[in-house]
Protein 1
Amino acid sequence: MSKEPAAPPSTPDAPPALELCGIDKRFGAVHANRAITFAVAAGSSHGLIGENGAGKSTLMNIVYGFHCADSGEIRVQGRTVEIGSPQQAIAAGIGMVHQHFMLVENFTVLENVVLGVEGGALLAGGLAAARAELGRLARDYGLEVPLDAVVSELSVGLQQRVEILKALYRGAEVLILDEPTAVLTPHEADQLFAMLRRLRAQGKAVILVTHKLREIMAVTDRVTVMKQGAVVAEVATRETSPRGLAEHMVGRAVLLQVEKRPAQPGAELLSVKALEVRDRLGVARLKSVSFNLRAGEIVGIAGVAGNGQSELLEALAGTRAASRGEISFGGRDLVREQLDPRARRALGLAHVPEDRLRMGVVAGFSAADNAILGYHDAARFNRGGLRDEAAIRAACAAKMAEFDVRPPQPELRLAAFSGGNQQKLVLAREIDADPQVLLIGQPTRGVDIGAIEFIHKRLIALRDAGKALLLVSVELDEILALADRILVMNGGEIIGELARADATEEKIGLMMAGVRAEVSP
Amino acid sequence: MSAPAKLPRWAEFGLLPLINLAVALVVAGVIIKILGESPLAAFKLMATGALGTQEGIGYTLYYATNFIFTGLAVAVAYHAGLFNIGAEGQAYIGGLGTGLVCLYLGTWPFWVVLPLAVLAGAIFGAAWAFIPAWLQARRGSHIVITTIMFNFIAAALMTYLLVNVLIKPGQQSPETREFSTNAVMPAAHELFDKMGITVVATPLNLAFGLALVAAVGVWIFIWRTRWGFALRVAGANSAAAVYAGISPPRIIVGAMLISGALAGGLGLNELMGSQHRILMDFPSGAGFVGIAVALMGRNQPVGIVVAAVLFGALYQGGSQLSFDMPKINRDMVVVIQGLVILLCGAMENVFRAPLTALFARVRSGKGIE
Ligand SMILES: Nc1ncnc2c1ncn2[C@@H]1O[C@H](COP(=O)(O)OP(=O)(O)OP(=O)(O)O)[C@@H](O)[C@H]1O
Ligand SMILES: [Mg+2]
């Protein structure tokens, strides 16, 4: 990612594309936004960073009409606008790509994009026009998406493109992206940034919420740092550095790379032989995958999203049926015996799912209920046939303290927690179960740099305690930071294996693109 | 992620249902006015008819008993993400089970007959719910459609049985013989009598107590057991259920069995408590009222009991009305009841959005404008 020259500043007297004045918002006792003021000029891009729970998503949700501010004003092109609903936000030219996608899973891409702006009572005409328009947008911004694919069949990365297309299709002048790269590969992220630069060059205003400081450095003109609901700094990107931003955010120096000792792999804990997974249409998503996991090592799976990593994790965890092959764990064959996720958990196989909101949690339930999901049958949470409410609460409170989940309120609905805090709770649940093998998809998706440091330390501690970890991450940095051994997937196959010492970004990148390497022993 | 702001609990569970009820009454009032009667007088008549006398209260609670059973049935299915429209049919067939025990084992002592009758009602009701549940779980046939169809099948089956098999020999109307006295639910006025308190005789009977016990049981099951937790997880997010090792098909079947069993409780009140025989169409719509009761009671047992009593009062007050106001006949009362069901049940969300917006505004002192 190279830094482009900043866009020419708009003429001084032109009003900002978007201006927030004294936005204030409370959720009960939580003061999520404290008198936030900032402005974004047309033709510029503005970064918004801060710890988990700092209030970034809340602020953006207010701009997009999902929440109503307690006080404060929003101005678009100098005009004060009332934004009480997303419809009003869209009408004011504000588009948003959410941290959690808002797509109708069983609709096609095309249907999702035109949803709500079908244009006319008859769908067919609108759809044809939309198809042409989307073709143009896809060409202009390099956003190729199969328009007739059903959204639920798309990888997370592609689903996000649909979200972006949706906003552009609705004519957004201000585009808000809430952690857009959390799920993208570096390559996809580069494509996204190229697109954001093009948008900026065309005079659109971009607001980028992210935890990745190099993205801020690469693509923004100014940065606002939030902490506990308030703006603590606003700087020109040119005049700052990742380290400086991190300190603004966390209030202390942050280790951007966690130290770890070389692995001491022990006995084989899990082995996979010729595993095959087919999707609903009978297409093989996983083709004859074989590998093993040994005690005391972290194995990372690298690959462009959608090349079978998700299917592999799910087949191992038992949430997706394998059509052929063998998974040996704890002296059992999980495939032949068709053990369900509960039985696998009981054997010591824990799973942090990639898409936590879809699969890992129940958004409407309390944090305490979510902290026992999957372990709700365990003796420690039940007494005499009834749930042991006190124990459930206490266990959640302990996890919240240990993983710094904020606010530490076990009875609060999960949906009321910020994205990073939800993720921390899921990790806490699975790590605290003390599994033999931990499957982790995107462990630090959406968590702030302070928390990444902590989570990485915990995962390494788990490894050093003699457990095996299988890590799927779209963050190559993360895989390089954690894994002792790296498997690269392409087209549903493992096309190469690298010891950490031999792995470089270039080598992995080549293999991810499908260039086979001789498998090292 | 974040849904639009939520209402505070007291507004969600108290204010919103009251607004719905008030609107229903206003519309009903307009109709009464058009019919040429005074709405105020009519409502007063309904209120005193339902709650102003011992007799009224007795009838109100007697009707409420049916609604508690069916309301709980709908609620349990709802928590599992299922819309059980079939409580009517399940109550009908469940009542058959209860009735058969009373007919053929009814000479045994009451304390033996009672548990058998409860069990038979539950099993028959559950069995009737099982087939739609199984079809949904295994074949994906939509439960709303199948349970509706099973209401019709239940009605046809019961007609056949009553006309051809169970009918009391030498009789015209399709009804069974009367249960023996051992198979009759003790009436409330008898129970009060034993305590030395004299009250007016009404059909209110011990089944009301059983309905309350069922409500407590449902509350404990849903909120305090791991099975209830699994059921709620499956109802709220089936992908998360699979992830947690909860089998959604198994939950579908389990929840519907419980739902059907609860609906089957209606026969205890209606047949054992009041009619003392099996007759045609004894659930008389209580299965559908149960949907409105569950919605209005927010699928919470306490709310369901309150809503059931309200609907009971509406039924009792309504019959009083058709009695005393000649211009308002039985059919008009059904129309008024239907309005309440429509506004409190089917359209209960109509006022949610404006109310939520109002709250957001009041809370912030001023709007964002
Ligand atoms: N609907 C809600 N009800 C109650 N509290 C809420 C609600 N939404 C957000 N909050 C609280 O407001 C605070 C700010 O949350 P927000 O989601 O804006 O954080 P964020 O900066 O986006 O964090 P992250 O980086 O983890 O996504 C948090 O403490 C959160 O728990
Ligand atoms: Mg956020």
Protein 2
Amino acid sequence: MLKLDEIQKRLLMEVADLHKVPEGAYNIRSNSQSAGRQSTANIEITPKTDVSGLDIRIKPGTKNESVHIPVVMTQSGLTELVYNDFYIGEGADVTIVAGCGIDNCGPKDSEHDGIHRFYVGKGAKVRYVEKHYGSGSGTGKRILNPGTEVYQEEDSSVEMEMVQIKGVDDTERTTTAELAAGAKLVVRERLMTHGSQRAISTYVVSLNGEGASADVVSRSVARDDSYQKFDAKLVGNAACSGHTECDSIIMDRGRILAVPGLEANDVDAALVHEAAIGKIAGDQIIKLMTLGLTEQEAEEQIINGFLK
Amino acid sequence: MIELQNISFAVDSDSQEKEILRDVSLSIGDGKLVVITGPNGGGKSTLARMIAGVEKPSSGRILFNGEDITNLSITERAKKGIGFAFQQPVRFKGIQVLDLLRIAAGKPLSVGDACNYLAQVGLCARDYIGREVNASLSGGELKRIEIATVLAKASSLSVFDEPEAGIDLWSFQNLIEVFEGMRRNIQGSSILIISHQERILSIADEIVVLKDGRVTASGPREEILPTLIGTQAAVRECRKNVVKKDEVGVC
Ligand SMILES: Nc1ncnc2c1ncn2[C@@H]1O[C@H](COP(=O)(O)OP(=O)(O)OP(=O)(O)O)[C@@H](O)[C@H]1O
Ligand SMILES: [Mg+2]
């Protein structure tokens, strides 16, 4: 496809499950250049002129279409800051697949900071998938700092799936959302950190209209000497409901800090936070060992299941 | 098949040594179905955990097909052919019933074969194969899945700790057929069941009674079962004691 080498193709597979040129609208960004772009009748992708990034406009009523905007970096030492703005028209129903893969085999840090803004029209539905992946044996770090802003109009719905399982050394993820009446936000975050990796995830979700709801759930595993912080704040400014959850496994010398934040500014706001952090339950390992797995194999199975 | 020789097991409880098993010896021959019964807290589950390798005895030896396995790990014993269904099955977030059956089988297992194991324990396979083995399963469903994993493992010695607990009365016959099927299908396989149920005791070749960590009776079913059915329930004996105290004005 296009002009991509084997490593770039592999990264694309990891972050966007892409084996070939995707159907529908897409933009593939490779080492800070566009390696291919396509708009469709309903989805228009145009490069920004003032800063690096794209404007993605989805016409009202567009149904069952998808947009792929993966990013791959294979040049060591590259640092980029990209702004992508999504304008999703009223009543549209679309899937957006983003994601960033960095292969760093050099000594310098590679960093991609992507700011994604979503303006979601009345009654529109968006499914958003964002995967992060790092590889390469260089000493340079692979750094990803995604910033996501979501503005949801009445009765719109956004489902976000964020996955970072391997190879990213340092992440600071900031997600803010503002929901109007009847709007619904669901976030599922899956995270695993190794070595001396660090991952910080901060959410501020404001439920501003009657009947707005948010459900933010993070499942994570911290291994070796890695560190994670999950800081989720819900602000209820109307009769609304919100739930955040941090469900984590720690191994080795891993550390996790979960910071609950609930602010109710309306007597009818119902907000809940749950957090559980602990090592793998001993009886789970024992059960799998009685089925013939070694202790290590048992741990792998338990973690794979947990993050599935 | 398996032989327990003079097994004792003690734990530290409130800085006092507590003896849970005292000099327990028993053996299970090839192709035999043995049921262990006895009062709550008698040490039955502890004994089962000892066989599976979850606990190590303070003294005594365990031989499996003539080999001393006392110091082998849980994994090594599982690989040699010991299967164990827990009294309280474990739940896993994210692991599906099919995953667990595949791990148990230890080889590629087709969805059809997996369904077969579920059908044997009375679960409608289609509804369960993709379910997570998590808190959403009912106690009885979880117990049946636990039994199915041991079926899938097809061990030469399978240990079931109170398999009937939580299984509804209507399915009881089905459970008994599971054990009978295992005996037929796995050549020379032995089964050890811990149970309080007369109907399970009545399919045993041999019965062992474990009380206060000691074997108080063991032998062929025909010999032991009649002596058990006639005895007064422990609860009733307790109550009698309370009444006596009442009469003398101690309470
Ligand atoms: N680690 C431990 N520490 C302290 N006491 C223990 C420990 N493990 C078992 N026990 C005690 O040992 C005794 C035997 O327990 P076990 O679970 O083997 O009984 P059981 O015969 O299976 O009972 P039940 O019929 O209720 O299942 C009980 O009194 C129990 O409280
Ligand atoms: Mg028990």
